[in-house]
Amino acid sequence: MKKLQMAVVFLVLAIVAPLPAMAQVGINVNVGVPMPPPLAVPGPPNVVVLPDSPDVYVDPDVNRDLFFWSGWWWEFWDGRWYRSHYYDRGWAYYNRVPSFYFDVDPHWREYYGARNWRGHPWAYQRIPNAQLQSNWKSWHANGYWQTSA
């Protein structure tokens, strides 16, 4: 009898345990919203942090604005915002302007080229993607980039 009870308990657990994992499956349907073309980058982006922004990183070598903020890659393309956890795949339409973008200076590329942020020397550092991915949370938590200009 105990073997039968144990078998029933095991069977119930085998059926019930996968339910939370199945509940995490998400479907993203973007009917009628074109996806941006793939980025032509030779490898993971090396970024710089933008001064006066809430931990916004950007790759100045890409001819499109490719931002990293709060664990997501962001791109504005064809009048729409897209985001992904990966710079090279998994893009999904984002139906509003991300909050970080309101703090991004539209002239950041000019400032980057001049190494001068709004009249002050800008000694930016190139940050390899692996370093960004492993440190962005702690950098945000401790205000690491608050004096980046």
Number of strands: 8
**Structural class by sheet pairing and helices:** alpha+beta
Question: Which ranges are low-confidence, i.e. pLDDT below 50, for 5 or more consecutive residues?
Answer: 19-30
Name the helicity range.
25-40%
Percentage of residues in DSSP E strands: 15-25%
Read across the widest sheet, the strand sequence of neighbours is 1-2-3-4-5-6
Question: Helical element count?
Answer: 4
Q: How can the largest sheet be summarized?
A: 6 strands, antiparallel
- Shape assignment: globular
N-to-C SSE series? HHEEEEEEHEEH
Comma- or semicolon-separated keywords:
single chain; 149 residues; alpha+beta; six-stranded antiparallel sheet; two-stranded antiparallel ribbon; 8 strands; globular
Describe the structure.
The chain is of the alpha+beta class. It has a domain of 101 residues. It is built from 4 helices and 8 strands, in the order ααββββββαββα. The longest helix is centred in the N-terminal third of the chain and has 15 residues.
Secondary-structure map:
Elements: H1 2-16, H2 18-23, E1 48-49, E2 57-58, E3 66-69, E4 72-77, E5 80-84, E6 92-94, H3 108-114, E7 116-117, E8 120-121, H4 129-142
Antiparallel strand pairs: 1-2, 2-3, 3-4, 4-5, 5-6, 7-8
